[in-house]
Write a structure and sequence with these properties.
alpha+beta, three-stranded antiparallel β-sheet, 16 helices, 12 strands, 14% strand
């Protein structure tokens, strides 16, 4: 590996460091997740993705038709679509869909064997369905997580041939006190925290066998798992239409054809935005062992991307990185990253329980600790 995990200091804990120089735009490393899962509402709204790796299960044209609400829409250059439906398969017992036999087999061996509903009927009788529905009434779009990631994480431990190792891999994400876990779980579940915590916990207890994972099934253990996914979960996004657009940029066509194609794509995105808003991708969340070691910076030198249009993460340098330099990503989205120092630090403290002292925050230390008028209005609207 061209990176290494080592302790930074007592406040930061571990961090990820480069063992060589990386040029801006280069891939630092790629990593498959420990577990991943599509968001609950995203799946409910028929964003069709492989249940294991989140690869799109629609062609680019099907994707565009659904997102624009235009069932007769035709995409030019269909050869630019990367979806291969000939490889699709599904669980014969529960009907869960996969992009390939490889994903189905991996899922079955890792967690699906004990999570299979054993029926294709969806009548909300099964505890897993009830847990998913309960979560959906706690965590509405825009989604940032799903409790079903916890279910897969526990099932992975139960099914593992080396349960001690699987538990160790899970605990590496946990390094907070019980009170801190409670605070983070409270943030994830919102105002009706106590009643929702109890409901979700009781439903979870009905979903998986208890033997070997008892430490995670106590009230404190469950809060710890909520805190774990809340602070370590990395968003995953895949899209058939975005892959088609990327492929069309490589077409050897005339300038007139290129101009017409660009206009078509601009209009396509206008129509998708009008009909579907910001919800264009198959979206989910994953836990990555190596990526989770990356600390936050408001001036990150790397960013997670999904170059393979599935849940395989590629960490890409966004500027030149020197040998021995710490590799940092942003825990904030692009919009929040450009807010005031006070707003950035407030968001990080609420969601991750740390005060950011990155170079940008240190440079802006003399700024007043108040939220700007414009940002206050945005916060009031979001509340």
């Amino acid at each position: 590996m061209d990176v290494e995990v080592r302790i930074v200091d007592n406040s930061k804990g571990k961090g990820l460091f480069s063992k060589k120089c990386f040029k801006s735009g280069s891939i630092i490393f790629e990593e498959d997740p420990l577990v991943s899962c599509q968001f609950s509402w995203n799946a409910a709204y028929q964003y069709k993705a492989c249940d294991h790796c989140l690869r799109p299960l629609e062609t680019a044209e099907e994707n565009a038709r659904r997102l624009t609400g235009k069932p007769d829409l035709e995409l030019p250059f269909p050869e630019c679509c990367t979806t291969d439906k000939s490889k699709f398969t599904s669980c014969t017992l529960c009907g869960t869909d996969y992009c390939s036999v490889e994903c189905q087999t991996t899922a079955y061996n890792q967690y699906h064997r004990i999570l299979c509903l054993q029926t294709t009927e969806r009548n909300n009788f099964h505890p897993l369905e009830q847990l998913n529905e309960a979560w959906k009434h706690v965590h509405y779009p825009p989604e940032t997580n799903t409790i079903m990631l916890i279910v897969r994480l526990l099932a992975r431990i139960i099914q593992s041939p080396n349960r001690e190792l699987a538990i160790e891999q899970t605990l590496q994400f946990c390094h907070r006190t019980v009170n801190e876990d409670a605070e983070l779980a409270h943030k994830l579940l919102g105002e009706k925290f106590a009643s929702q915590l109890s409901l979700l916990h009781n439903l979870l207890l009905q979903c998986v066998p208890h033997e070997g994972i008892e430490q995670f099934l106590t009230p404190a253990g469950f809060q710890g798992l909520l805190a774990l996914i809340g602070t370590n979960g990395q968003g995953v996004g895949t899209s058939a239409i975005s892959q088609w657009v990327t492929r069309t940029s490589d077409l050897a066509i005339s300038d007139d054809e290129r101009g017409a194609l660009d206009k078509f794509i601009d209009k396509l995105y206008e129509d998708m935005d009008s009909h579907s808003g910001n919800f264009l991708n198959n979206e989910g969340v994953a836990l990555f062992t190596l990526q989770s070691a990356c600390n936050h910076s408001c001036v990150p030198n790397a960013e997670p991307t999904y170059l393979h249009n599935n849940n395989r993460l590629s960490l890409v340098a966004v500027r030149d990185i020197q040998e021995g330099e710490e590799i940092c990503i942003s825990y904030l989205d692009e919009c929040n990253l450009h807010r005031s120092r006070h707003s950035r630090r407030k968001g990080l403290m609420e969601n991750y329980l740390f005060a950011c002292n990155c170079p940008k925050c240190e440079e802006q230390a003399e700024e007043p600790d108040v939220t700007s008028e414009e940002e206050e209005e945005e916060e009031e609207m979001s509340e």
